Amino acid sequence: MPSAALVGCPQCDLLQRAIPLAAGESALCGRCGATLYRARAPSPDRARALAVAALIAYGVAMTFPIVAFEVQGSVIETTLPGAARALYDAGMAPLAALVIFTTTIFPLLVIAALLRLPAAKALRLLHAVQPWAMVEVFMLGVLVALAKLALMAIVIPGVGALAVGALIVLLAAAQRAATL
Length: 180
What we know:
The protein is α+β, with helices and mostly antiparallel strands.
């Protein structure tokens, strides 16, 4: 069930109060009969399968370059841990620590919690770590930076960038399957 007290119909825009549903039930619009939302039971098996796929994407994202720059014939590549290392070497240790925690350690903790479902401690860890696992925010920052750098250098997205994108989608799907 949606967390808001009111739910808008996607067809006729009628606002209606959200009601609790049993697993498998659907809430229908009182005016047009469109489906407002469905209640599904959590699916630990689906969550684990998606978490395993996310772990594979995580391994690829950590190993392969996320981006390469070509400036005056010189090519520079970096991975996610390499980006944090470059920040540390540039004297920005607090920012490097934040990058390594939000893009490397916390997403791994989320994956570990999803693999251990339905253990209560794993669910508590998942909810505690989720606000800090901000791979998608990092990728948004990278995309903005790449758009600005495109005028000065040739920007070549790497396999790691595709893996990070897959990781973001897989983590969201696994968390949804775990908490439905």
